[in-house]
């Protein structure tokens, strides 16, 4: 766990659809009409009214995000972010992935969310290299938090232990070491 001012960042092995937070982020596609992976799980848990609301949004560009209600989820809102497909790194994938985290936090702020949970966007079907994706996720959240000062809790929801270990290591690396004694 990492504490930055009033906000804690933590990684947990958990099914994101079960979290009672203000907003859960979905790893969606540009249609916003559902799919497999975490997207499918969120739509199944939220029920058909989520799809109806998504149909009214007109899709979403890669690197952007749109917000809906949570419907039958325990979360008040779902934020549908569209991560990049990994094509080797030469097609702006890093910046597009960072933009997903930035836009999601901005939408959470505008919805007055205090707690938000992210899945590892693009790390499944979209094949983004996990170590790089985790670094980008943590760095972008840290960089964006000053712009979303009401957010008090960020959860990185991991589907498996291997992904959890990556986030833990990345957060641990950023925990300030105590100041060393002057020589
Ligand atoms: N809770 C938390 N994490 C999960 C869950 C869950 N319930 N289910 C899967 N994950 P993916 P992408 C993890 O493929 O790569 C969909 O078809 C999973 O282990 O869901 O961004 C969309 O419609 C992985 O670490 O998303 C798009 O077409 C991470 O979530 C496409 O897949 C993301 O895997 C998006 O691909």
TrEMBL record:
- Signal sequence extent: none
Q: Which InterPro entries match?
A: Macro_dom, Macro_dom-like
Q: Which GO terms describe its molecular function?
A: O-acetyl-ADP-ribose deacetylase activity
For this protein, the record's SUPFAM superfamilies field holds: Macro domain-like
What is any Pfam family matched here? Macro
The UniProt record lists the EC number as 3.1.1.106
- Keyword Hydrolase attributed: yes
The residue stretches assigned to a coiled coil in this entry are: none
Q: What is the name of this protein?
A: O-acetyl-ADP-ribose deacetylase
Q: What keywords would UniProt list here?
A: Hydrolase
Macro domain mapped to chain residues: 1-175
């Amino acid at each position: 766990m990492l504490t930055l001012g009033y906000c804690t960042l933590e990684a947990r092995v958990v099914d994101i659809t079960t979290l009672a937070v203000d907003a859960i982020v979905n790893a969606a596609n540009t249609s916003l009409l559902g799919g497999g992976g975490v997207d499918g799980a969120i739509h199944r848990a939220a029920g058909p009214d989520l799809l109806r609301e998504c149909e009214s949004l007109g899709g979403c560009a890669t690197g952007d995000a749109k917000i809906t209600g949570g419907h039958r989820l325990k979360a008040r809102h779902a934020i549908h972010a569209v991560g990049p497909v990994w094509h080797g790194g030469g097609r702006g994938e890093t910046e597009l992935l960072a933009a997903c985290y930035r836009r999601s936090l901005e939408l959470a702020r505008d919805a007055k969310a205090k707690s938000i949970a992210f899945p590892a966007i693009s790390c499944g079907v979209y094949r983004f290299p996990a170590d790089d994706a985790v670094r980008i996720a943590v760095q972008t959240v840290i960089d964006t938090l000053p712009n979303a000062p009401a957010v008090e809790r960020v959860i990185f929801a991991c589907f498996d232990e291997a992904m959890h270990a990556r986030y833990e290591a990345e957060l641990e690396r950023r925990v300030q070491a105590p100041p060393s004694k002057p020589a």
